[in-house]
Amino acid sequence: MFHSAAIDIGASSGRVIRGSFDGNQLQVCELYRFSNQPVTVHGRMYWDIYRLYAEIKDGLRRLAAESKSVKSVGIDTWAVDYGLLDKDGLLMNLPRHYRDSRTLGMMERVEERIHRNQLFARTGIQRMPINTLYQLMAEQVESPERLSRATHLLLIPDLLNYFLTGQKWTEFTNATTTQLLCAGTKHWDMDLLQQLDLPSHYLGKIVSPGTPLGHLSDLDLLQDSRVAAASVIHVASHDTASAVLGIPVQSESFAYISSGTWSLFGTLVSEPIINERTAEMNFTNEGGYQNYRLLKNIMGLWLLQQTELSEQKRGNICSIPDMLRLAQNGEPFAFYFDTEDTRLLPPGDIPSRIYEICRENSQNPPVDLGTLVRGILENLAFQYRYVLDQLEEILQRRIQVIHIVGGGAQNELLCQFTADATGRPVIAGPIEASAIGNLGMQLLAQDELRSSSELQELVKRSVITKLYEPLLEKRWEEAYKLYLESTGKRLSNRARQNICS
């Protein structure tokens, strides 16, 4: 039996998961779960990276206690955020959170020097204020001395791997999200950095997913012989790249939604698709294992997470499962709003911001919590439909099925709404797709599997999914038209014809 550890950390929680492979099936068991909450100091948001590392070590100790031996370890996390190391290999500051306000105005500052279309043509990456490029511009404005003293920039999974092994490498799938790579290559765009007067000396070697980093060097972990010999693997370290490897693909023409704090909606392509239309639609081309992911970031379950916190601050002890039960009886199609409104990006009172958006659009805000939550889910589903329409225009073909993986796969109401809004069957699961893809990459790296097709067949044999068929399609089509009108979103002639036909 091959035992390995997947460390899968999202923007709100982390997990240490044991994978056990018997040559035919992959069994997955969550051994340890921990929260991942930012810390705010003097108005600045940071990731508590040292606590996350301590949680990883606790999880690995638990794994060692339950397994005879651990053959390998892999880490995947969210993208774009980073830590800077000094000449002594010490972390210069806690990594800043991508929702920190320091990036306000940085996209405009960059675009004063390089047009957004030219930037997309060079990098193939979606224009979002959270991107590493804009964070570096903010860093340069805030503390140019810190950037000049830094010897290495490591993205979050690379930083955690450095803590484990002492190796300072950058993994490809996460590097592509930074907006600092030449599109379709494994090379940093040094000319771009020079054009923006950003130093580049701290950018290091980029390696492919599946690259062994070496063995553990942390003295605490080396004391346990059951984990000390584990090989640390650079898996597809962007959690969405790992999640895509964990999809039980059943059709060549599929789209996926990696559903968690963010919803990442996209499909797989052999090479980046970079043209005027993908630039206008603000799609992104992120690296995967032997392919690229053409996708768009959507606000996702962040809206529910912040609504839960807002309700609790008002004294309403109400969990997300409670809110979803209320949503089942909420008024359908009561209001429409753009889930991608930038006012919804920072943490805070999301319900009040949605009420404000409704009033601006001459709509009545929801009158009860059930209607509010139902409306959030409906409008997320409409945004999925909108991105699907755009994706089909780019690909010039119809998507037959949508896979929802990650935590959102257990949200039955959202899965059904997605099927209804898109008119496509939705296959939900697995919930732990990122961990499964992480473990699968370790199996490939250790020659337990020979190819990505073998991994895909293994996933199909090892996971359970649930099918959601579209219902009430005509009613959802009419509501989708109102959504487009209310949000001012525009479709191509082809997409409009699909609605009318």
UniProtKB/TrEMBL annotation:
Keyword Kinase, does the record have it? yes
Q: Which GO terms describe its biological process?
A: glycerol metabolic process; rhamnose catabolic process
| A GO term from the CC aspect | cytosol
Q: Which UniProt keywords apply?
A: ATP-binding, Disulfide bond, Kinase, Nucleotide-binding, Rhamnose metabolism, Transferase
Q: Where is the Carbohydrate kinase FGGY N-terminal domain?
A: 6-246
Naturally occurring in which organism (per UniProt): Alicyclobacillus tolerans
> Which family does the entry's similarity section mention?
Belongs to the FGGY kinase family.
Domain Carbohydrate kinase FGGY C-terminal residues, every copy: 255-445
Q: In terms of domain of life, where is this protein from? A: Bacteria
Keyword Thylakoid part of the UniProt annotation: no
One short Pfam name that applies is FGGY_N
Alphabetically, the GO molecular function entries are: ATP binding; glycerol kinase activity; rhamnulokinase activity
Q: Which CDD domains match?
A: ASKHA_NBD_FGGY_RhaB-like
Q: Which InterPro entries match?
A: ATPase_NBD, FGGY_C, FGGY_N, Rhamnulokinase
Report the protein name in the record.
Rhamnulokinase
